[in-house]
Write a structure and sequence with these properties.
It is built from nine helices and no strands. It has helices at residues 2-11, 19-25, 30-55, 61-70, 74-84, 87-97, 103-121, 125-157, 163-217. The longest helix is centred in the C-terminal third of the chain and has 55 residues, at 163-217. 25% of the residues are buried.
Length: 220
């Protein structure tokens, strides 16, 4: 008898559950979570490419601008800014169009343009921030709904109720919590990574602004 029990235990195979099966068991809450994840990934990739382009700079740009301004070739300086077509070149272009006005007016015009450039780079970031906060909440909502269903099934099972009925419903309900936390964590890291890159662009714009203002203050 003991040998039969040992043989039976040896033949028991561990049950494996794939990620896809877990997602299916999560219920309808998994659909909005999947959409949030896909949109967040798209926003991160798209913004990362845009910000990376904005962070690149031409080492000879300011030198050429300085030469053009000192030589009085204002139109050539404007054309160079338009051709370069970067956030800092648009700042310098705005400053060049204000040459001849009080220095404070030039600085204000450049700063306003810089604020607009940073705002454009930050498009989509509110979505990532909302996803980082909202996805875990959706996951918890799915878990609560699943727990209600599990205990409802347990209550209706009557005399045939057992731990298996309750455990199965609970682990299925917890799937949405795992999914919500996963999506939220991904969105949070994506948001912080983009914010760090935008801060780098801000420092670049500030440096170019100071360099341009110093150029205007130089004696002719």
């Amino acid at each position: 008898m003991e040998n039969e029990m040992t043989a039976a235990a040896a033949t028991v195979q561990p049950v494996e559950l794939s990620v896809w099966e877990l997602c299916i068991k999560g219920g309808f809450i998994m659909i909005p979570l999947a959409l949030l994840l896909l949109i967040s990934i798209y926003i991160f990739i798209e913004r990362y490419i845009v910000i990376s382009r904005a962070d690149k700079q031409d080492a000879s740009f300011m030198k050429r601008i300085k030469d053009y301004i000192h030589e009085g070739e204002i139109e050539s300086a404007k054309n160079l800014c338009k051709k370069t077509d970067t956030p800092y070149s648009r700042l310098i272009l705005k400053g060049i169009t204000r040459i001849g006005r009080p220095m404070n007016d030039v600085l204000v015009a450049i700063e306003n343009t810089g604020n607009l450039e940073i705002a454009n780079l930050g498009k989509g970031l509110p979505w990532l921030a909302t996803t980082a906060a909202g996805a875990p909440m959706l996951g918890f909502l799915g878990t609560v709904v699943g727990m209600v269903e599990a205990f409802f099934a347990l209550a209706n099972a009557g005399s045939s109720a057992n731990v298996t009925v309750l455990a199965g419903g609970i682990y299925e309900a917890l799937v949405t919590t795992v999914a919500g936390l996963t999506v939220g964590i991904i969105a949070l890291f994506a948001y912080n990574a983009l914010v760090a890159r935008i801060n780098g662009v801000m420092k670049l714009l500030e440096g170019k602004t100071m360099e341009f203002m110093d150029l205007l203050n130089e004696p002719a």
